[in-house]
């Protein structure tokens, strides 16, 4: 097994690195407080300066053809390899850059895989040009891990579907344009066979979006209500009532969006803090317990990277990394908790100080990470679900 990039991949990595350093504000990585793997510490406030920087950067990505980097050329991509896509994703997350969102990371690849030609013509150009962003309309108050139990309905009426129901945990629904959503289109069918995918315009009459302020104090989540919302039937993605099977593929795309470079960045920042800090008059970096904790986290990050590169390699070989994607997601989200625990243990009582304290160490990242890391083990499929997938699909064990 060769663990080195080839010449083309190395050159591409260097090109991405130079691009990020040039196009991002110099202090962008240091200002970001996003905890790797988490969903709650995302900088999703409607801050004009933040949105302006993110918008300009995404337009630069469109110009380079990197927003849809591995897509076929006829649909706006550069047709890079999946390994190059992984290299790009790793560097973008390391620099905490505004990268792929739901539209480009999940909806676009899903439409290319199972959408009709009309779907592709209608949505792919808008996604590829960063004209629209989407939020995930999956979870409901009583449907999380078991998405086959969703109750939001879509009833055909003339040229439209009429949608009624509620979604929850809709990340960025308040600033996105459309919902990438699963609905029940056949209430009489077995629960796995009566679900369809719709794209729903956020501006449609009958949609109410209410903020959910998370434990970190950030407005990233929302609850969304649909009251007789009319959606054109041409917004149906793929075949009617095939949505659950499409959803399983779409979830694999989501589970690959682990932002793995962020883990290495946070570790490096924590090591830098330890290198210069003192405790009881002695350098913190000489504390044996601290050194062991950091070494253990460093090892686990390297393991996560191996799963990450392995998944990209499988995609380039035309293999389906369903089990590997679940393993990667499990490892990274559990790593999010372990990294937060380690930071809090090393910092001691000072680790509880929030960002507005003048005594705060490590930019106040530790308590944000500690609060946010729980979300990492739930979003895109809980750790328990990931273990079940690995057991059933990977090891061939019975479901019960």
How many β strands by DSSP?
A: 10
Strand content: 5-15%
Structural class: alpha+beta
Termini separation: 36 Å
Shape: globular
User: Low-confidence stretches at least 5 residues in length (pLDDT < 50)?
Assistant: none
List keywords for this structure.
400 residues, alpha+beta, Butyryl-Coa Dehydrogenase, subunit A, domain 1, Butyryl-CoA Dehydrogenase, subunit A, domain 2, Butyryl-CoA Dehydrogenase, subunit A, domain 3, 3 domains, 4-stranded mixed beta sheet, 4-stranded antiparallel beta sheet, 12 helices, globular
Characterise this structure.
- This protein is of the alpha+beta class.
- It has 3 domains: 7-128, Butyryl-Coa Dehydrogenase, subunit A, domain 1, CATH 1.10.540.10; 134-242, Butyryl-CoA Dehydrogenase, subunit A, domain 2, CATH 2.40.110; 251-394, Butyryl-CoA Dehydrogenase, subunit A, domain 3 (Up-down Bundle).
- The chain contains 12 helices and 10 strands.
- It has helices at residues 7-23, 28-31, 48-64, 82-94, 102-114, 117-128, 243-255, 260-276, 288-316, 322-347, 365-376, 383-394, and strands at residues 134-137, 153-157, 160-168, 178-184, 195-201, 207-213, 219-232, 236-237, 278-279, 282-283.
- The strands form 3 sheets. A 4-stranded mixed sheet has the order 1-4-5-8, covered by helices on one side. The chain has a 4-stranded antiparallel sheet with strand order 2-3-7-6, with no helix packed on it. A two-stranded antiparallel ribbon has the order 9-10.
- A hairpin with a 2-residue loop joins strand 2 (153-157) and strand 3.
- Helix 10 packs antiparallel against helix 11.
- The longest helix is centred in the C-terminal third of the chain and has 29 residues, at 288-316.
- The protein is globular, with a radius of gyration of 22 Å.
- The chain starts with 6 loop residues before the first helix and ends in a 6-residue tail after the last helix.
- The model has no long low-confidence stretch (mean pLDDT 90).
């Amino acid at each position: 097994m060769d663990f080195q990039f080839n010449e083309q991949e190395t050159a591409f990595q260097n090109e991405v690195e130079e691009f990020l350093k040039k196009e991002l504000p110099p202090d962008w990585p240091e200002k970001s407080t996003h905890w790797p793997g988490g969903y709650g510490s995302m900088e999703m406030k409607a801050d004009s300066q933040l949105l302006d920087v993110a918008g300009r950067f995404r337009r630069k990505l469109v110009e380079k053809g990197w927003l849809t980097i591995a897509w076929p050329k006829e649909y706006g991509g550069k047709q890079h390899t999946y390994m190059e896509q992984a290299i790009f994703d790793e560097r973008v997350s390391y620099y905490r850059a505004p990268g792929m969102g739901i539209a480009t990371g999940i909806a676009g690849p899903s439409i290319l895989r199972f959408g009709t030609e009309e779907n592709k013509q209608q949505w792919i150009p808008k996604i590829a040009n960063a004209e629209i962003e989407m939020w995930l309309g999956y979870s409901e108050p009583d449907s999380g891990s078991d998405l086959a139990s969703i109750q939001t309905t879509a009833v055909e009426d003339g040229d439209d579907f009429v949608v009624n129901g509620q979604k929850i945990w809709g990340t960025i629904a308040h600033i996105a344009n459309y919902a990438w959503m699963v609905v029940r289109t056949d209430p009489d069918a077995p629960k796995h066979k009566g679900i369809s995918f719709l794209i729903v315009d956020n501006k449609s009459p009958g949609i109410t979006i209410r903020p959910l302020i998370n434990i970190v104090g950030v407005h990233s989540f929302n609850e969304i209500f649909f009251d007789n919302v009319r959606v054109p039937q041409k917004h149906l993605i793929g075949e009617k009532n095939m949505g659950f099977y499409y959803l399983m593929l779409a979830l694999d795309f989501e589970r690959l969006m682990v932002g793995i470079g962020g883990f290495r960045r946070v570790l490096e920042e924590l090591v830098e803090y330890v290198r210069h800090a003192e405790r009881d008059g002695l350098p913190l970096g000489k504390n044996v317990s601290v050194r062991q904790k950091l070494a253990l986290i460093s090892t686990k990050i390297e393991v996560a990277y191996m799963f990450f590169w392995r998944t990209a390699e499988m995609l380039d070989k035309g293999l389906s990394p369903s089990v590997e994607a679940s393993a990667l997601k499990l490892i990274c989200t559990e790593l999010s908790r372990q990294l937060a625990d380690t930071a809090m243990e090393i910092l001691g009582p000072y680790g509880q100080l929030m960002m507005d304290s003048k005594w705060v160490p490590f930019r106040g990242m530790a308590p944000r990470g500690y609060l946010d890391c729980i979300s990492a083990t739930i979003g895109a499929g809980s750790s328990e679900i990931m273990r079940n997938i690995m057991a059933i699909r990977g090891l061939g064990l019975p479901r019960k």
